[in-house]
Here is the input.
Amino acid sequence: MGVIDTAGLTKRYPRVTALDSLDVSVGEGVTGLVGANGAGKSTLIKILLGLVPATSGTASVLGHDVATDGSKIRSLVGYMPEHDCLPADVSASDLVVHMGQMSGLPYPSARERASDVLRHVGLAEERYRPMGGYSTGMKQRAKLAQALVHDPRLVLLDEPTNGLDPSSRDDMLALVRRIGTEFGIAVLVTSHLLGELERISDHVVVLDSGRLLQSSATRDFMHTTGNLLVEVQGPTDADRMLGQALIERGLRAWPSGEMVEVEVQDATTHDVVRDLVVDLGLGLVRMQERHHRIEDVFREGGAGSVQPT
Here is the structure.
């Protein structure tokens, strides 16, 4: 049994099916839940917390049935919501202490735990300031702290990098990774940014329109494809020139962003590419094996728009 298990989990609204017969298992470590907006990520989290009933199917969290044990699940799980929900006139310290008490901690323990988690998330100095004056990054850290204060066995983080600049996003991702490794807490983290989940997740679950596209270890997404990525410099149409020349030599080639992707046919393919770059008077910037990325699952599955970062 996993930390989270679903079987045939379905949630229908009058005009849309948010989850469609979802069968998935989530284990220890950091699991990334990726999908475009509207893929069903937030709906799944609400069902797992026992806040929204499923239309059909079953789900369990830490061995507890979401349909009957919602209050027990919420006592064992930390939840960081996507949207800004912090009271502007309350300090982070008071909020986190209050949430600790709501989770069953006595006041002295809640204060001690609040101090610890606020330090861990980087809010030690600002913890007594009203949160209405916080930056977006500080608000996200405060939301993360309240999810951790009661020492949960699992945390559900809904788009924790939402609205953050690149530096703050990197800091948040490092915190999420630490939770799943150093703290030993299982993590389910949602994002529509593919590169984020590749960086921090041990396992990735890919949703599209409420359906499961793939669930596997992150390393399984990263195998080589047997193709080459070639970047050249020269005229503005240098990549087109190289692609056309490769096709004329009988190789399969096509654009891949600002590079040219080439199918490797045999051991001579690398030499052919190199020689054509020289013959065309172009500069060879790099030539490397192409690795599958999570975004390829969406491309192959015809899924909606998900950003690769």
In short: The CA atoms of residues 97 and 108 lie 9 Å apart.
